[in-house]
Structure formats: structure tokens, C-alpha cells
Amino acid sequence: LVTPTSGSILWNGEDVTALSITERARRGISYGFQQPPRFKGIRVKDLLAIAAGRKFLPKGEACSYLTQVGLCANDYLDREVDTSLSGGEVKRIEIATILARHPQLMILDEPEAGIDLWSFARLTETFEEIHARQDCTMIIISHQERIISLADEILVIDKGVIARRGTRDEVFSDIVHSTTGGCPVIYGEAKK
User: Fold this and answer.
1) 109 strand-pairing partners
2) 143 phi and psi, to 5 degrees?
3) Which uninterrupted H or E stretch holds 111?
4) Given its phi and psi angles, is residue 46 left (phi above 0), alpha (psi -120 to 50 degrees) or beta?
5) Which of 63, 136, 169, 170 would give a disulfide with 73, using CB separation of 3.0 to 4.6 Å?
6) CB-count burial class (<10 Å; 0-12, 13-18, 19+) for 158
7) pLDDT tens per residue, the chain (192 residues)?
8) What is the dihedral of CA 49, 51, 54, 56, to 10 degrees?
9) Strand pairing partners for 104?
10) Would you give the distance in Å from CA 112 to the centre of its chain?
11) Which helix (H) or strand (E) holds 97?
């Protein structure tokens, strides 16, 4: 979304750096915001149809996208995507719209933000299912151990620079150690 000051963004061998958001979307790139937008006046089922590139989406198909993100579809299809929904609900609806697009690349900025534990578990299962199908590349920006542990490759970014890069097995234990290793755990009586 921000024009880079150097370098380029390549997707499937094509330089997409200067392309508009619309052109990137046409190439199968979808993005999920940490704080998704709300759309007063647009119902969930209409938003899903727009995302799927159709005027109408059959109820069963719309329900399947909502179910994948932990929402009871019948409770949401006719609701507006407005301030009556919680942040977690809007986040899950946004991810459902991304699923409806059938993207080649999903970029998700903290998809777990604002989501309750049950929905988080369902969302993690959805990511595992997408990974198992191998029909989509996912880039997930997250601080959550459970989501990071799903990764094939992890990049640790510190102050805008890649500080570490490797497979889950190479990097994950270092992440856990660096986030807990510097904090002494004292059992029993507190030290003075």
C-alpha cells in the first residue's frame, strides 16, 4: 500500500511494484487489514458476492466462507458490515471475503487481532486447511505462537530489517527463546 523507496515487488516473476491495488487484486493478490474497514449499507452476503466477483452468491457458498472463519452464517448474512459488529466479527468477515476471492496470495496482517479464542482456533484450522491444499500462498504477519508455528518459512523483522530467516524448525525455537529467555522466571519466594 506504501510505495517502496527502493527495491521491487515480484509476484510470479512479474514486477508488481507500480501496479495499483486493483491491478494487484486482478493478479490474485488479496490483503487483510489489521483493522478492517466497515461498510455501512452493505450486507455481509453482498460483500461476499462482491469479493467473489459476482452479483449474487448462493446461500450455501456464502455460508461456507463464514463457517470457515467461525461465524454462524445465518446470524450474519443479512447484517450490515457497520458499527453494530465487533472488531473481531468484522475481521472474520474480511477474512471470509478473502477466501471468497480464491486468491493466489493472501497477505494477512495480524488476522487474530480482536478474535475470541474459539474463533481463533477455527481460523487456525482454516489456515491449516489452506496450507494442506497448497492452492494459495499465505503471508501472515503475527505475534501469535500458534499461527507462527504453522509457517513453512519465518522471517523475523526487527526495526524494518530482516533479522532472521529460515524454516519453522530453524527459527521458531529461537523466537520462543528470545521472547522468554530474557525474562527470569522465579518460582516460590520472590528475590529481593
Assistant:
1) 141
2) -110, 0
3) none
4) alpha
5) 63
6) exposed
7) 778 888 999 999 999 999 998 999 999 999 888 777 788 889 999 999 999 989 999 998 999 999 888 887 788 999 999 888 888 888 889 989 999 999 999 998 888 887 777 778 878 888 888 888 878 899 988 888 788 888 889 888 888 888 889 988 888 777 766 665 545 444 444 444
8) 0
9) none
10) 7
11) helix 87-101
Q: What does the alpha-carbon distance between residue 80 and residue 32 come to, in Å, rounded to a whole number?
A: 19
Number of residues written out for the chain: 192
C-alpha distance from residue 90 to each of 97, 111, 135, 139, 147 (Å) = 11, 11, 25, 20, 19
Instruction: Indicate the pTM of the whole model.
Output: 0.78
Residue 128 in grid coordinates: 491449516
Report d(CA 166, CA 190) in Å as an integer. 38
Rounded CA-CA distance 61/136 in Å is 19
Residue keyed to cell 524494518? 160
How far is Cα 154 from Cα 32, in angstroms, rounded to an integer?
A: 19
The count of other CB atoms within 10 Å of the CB of residue 31 is 17
The cell for 131 is 496450507
